[in-house]
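HUMAN: Now follow token order:
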Amino acid sequence: MRPGLIGIFDSGVGGLTVADRVRQELPGAPFLYFGDTAHVPYGNRSAEEVRHLVSAIARHLVASGAQVLVMACNTSSALALDLVRAWSPVPVIGIIEAASRAAVQATRNGVVGVIANPLTAGSGAYEEACARASSEAGERAGGVRVLPVGCPRLVPLVEAGEVRSPSARAALLEYLGPLRDEGIDTLVLGCTHYPFLVPLITEILGSGVRIIDPAVYVVAELVKSGWFPPNTEEALPLYQVSGEPLDFDRMASRLLGHLVTGTTRVDLGAGACVSS
């Protein structure tokens, strides 16, 4: 595989946690980030709608020169990974498999919690991926208990920049309370928006619960896919959205703590149109 542009996409600002990890660990690596801000959140849409949107975005990124695609969205990975891989001429990296392997390795008591949007939580993707990881590891085969919780209020809170607000705390207490009562020792962040909520999550669960952020494992998956950095000068990251660019710039800069600017709006056409 030749080096080149990394295409990263998500339903909104959440995938910036993945893009920023790539930026930090692979300085100068060229990437194009696409946030489908006109259709966020995906968790409230049908599986058919999500597959339709993801396919349109993936085709756009490939046409834009991406040499590898990163689905920085758990819902996309759960519902459309195999679909996109079936036609894509470049490697496609999801984030559920790597996070599940990490969770199986991290848990001490075999009780793993997953917070995700309702569509991902109800898909069974994490249960299946953790079962495969357990079997491959030869430990706790079938014995890892995975407890997914759908969290419909979290993505809108993060998209609004409310990552430390009383509303965010109240929502997390509601979603994490049952998992804490079940005795989880490992929590998978099953949505790339959720790393922005880690300080609150840690306050609620305590330091004894290991938090698995799938973004941490993306760089390793990129290397495994055969991608390697081009031997060129540092390339500036590119940002595109389907919604309002200035809103994205402001929110991305606020969440990441450094300036994000120059985002452009891209209309993917009628092929990506779904009900709003």
The chain has a mean pLDDT of 90. The beta strands are 5-10, 31-35, 66-71, 92-93, 111-116, 145-150, 186-189, 210-212, 238-241, 264-265.
